[in-house]
Design brief:
This protein is an alpha+beta fold. The protein has helices at residues 140-145, 161-169, 178-188, 203-213, 236-239, 252-259, 281-284, 297-310; strands at 10-14, 35-39, 53-57, 62-67, 70-82, 91-93, 101-103, 109-110, 114-126, 132-133, 156-159, 216-217, 221-222, 228-232, 247-251, 263-265, 271-273. The radius of gyration is 23 Å and the shape is elongated.
């Protein structure tokens, strides 16, 4: 299933919401499931490309994986802290010990570093469409061992993707990385479908759908729960509440396509894939398949309305 990804470069990136070595009040703009930020002082800063795979961790465990969709570049100031003794920047803030700061280079300790401001190039990637939650699947030790340079201390480290994929699959989750293949196919094929953000407050809605249907995508069949989104069959913005009888579970990329009418269900409960994406093998294989769950009356009605909106002339 994931053969297309075998030649893609992959990176292990450190979530820096509480970055210990960042010795000022400045913080990077990171959100694990949607975007990641870095600057030109970070090793490998210009190596990351659109279409690359990224695994996000927090120095303790894996958080999740995705595919880089976009990278925005800019310029701006960055506060730089230096050791008062050797003037190097490799220092850490200690939260429980005094003096507060310690230099990794010369071992000097001090209450406040020297500060200066440098102009840096900034980078901000987005990756929400293919995001797969995998919290705790792999430990810090396991992740470091899967890097091209296991002893690296960099925030962005090259990852041995084939070995990483095998390690995730050994955890007994089946193949939770399927959404990465779909997103990668869209990016390489020039498809411009935009990601659909998960609506706030729907964790209970998703839990109820998992209880009722099990970890099953209504279009593609059984999948690990982390790969599934709770999909509303009606307009949540209009209805304003989560109706457990008005939802299904879909693989994340299929959720995005369903919301845009690129995948629908006809009156015979057969999956219909729009002609403009049917040439992608991953989606073409779904066209003509029977809907994988038995819808109730409400679901049938909402699926009919969705069909009328996007297919019926």
């Amino acid at each position: 299933m994931l053969e297309r990804l075998a030649n893609r470069r992959a990176w292990l990136v450190l979530l820096k919401s509480d970055y210990r070595r960042l010795s000022t009040s400045s913080r990077y703009d990171d959100e694990a499931a949607t975007h990641y930020s870095w600057d030109s002082r970070v090793p490998n800063c210009r190596q990351v490309r659109v279409g690359d795979l990224i695994a996000v961790w927090d120095e303790a465990e894996l958080i999740g994986v995705s595919v880089v969709e976009t990278i925005e570049r800019g310029f701006g100031p960055k506060p730089i802290a230096r050791c008062r003794n050797c003037h190097k920047t490799n220092i850490e803030r200690r939260t429980t010990l005094r003096p507060t700061f310690r230099c990794y280079e010369c071992k000097a300790m001090f209450d406040e570093p020297e500060y200066e401001e440098a102009e840096v190039e900034t980078f901000r990637s987005t990756h929400s469409q293919g995001w797969v939650d995998l919290p705790g699947t792999l430990t810090a030790k396991e992740l470091r061992a899967l890097c091209v340079k296991p002893k690296s201390q960099n925030s962005i480290r090259e990852l041995r993707w084939d070995d990483f994929q095998a390690a995730v699959q050994r955890e007994g989750l089946g193949d939770p990385l399927v959404p990465l293949e779909a997103t990668s196919a869209q990016l390489s094929g020039g498809h411009t479908t935009k990601p659909v953000r998960v609506r706030l407050g729907q964790q209970g809605f998703r839990a109820e759908l998992l209880r009722r249907f099990g970890p099953n995508c209504a279009f593609s069949g059984q999948l690990p729960a982390p790969a599934l989104d709770a999909c509303h069959l009606y307009s949540y913005a209009v209805v304003g509440k989560h109706d457990p009888h008005g939802g299904i579970l879909l693989r994340r990329d299929l959720h995005s396509l369903f919301d845009r009418g690129l995948v629908a269900v006809n009156p015979d409960r057969v999956v219909d894939v729009a002609i403009e994406i049917r040439n992608y093998p991953l989606y073409g294989a779904l066209h003509g398949r029977q809907f994988r769950i038995k819808p109730n009356a409400k679901q049938d009605e909402w699926l009919r309305l969705h069909w009328q909106e996007h297919r019926a002339s």
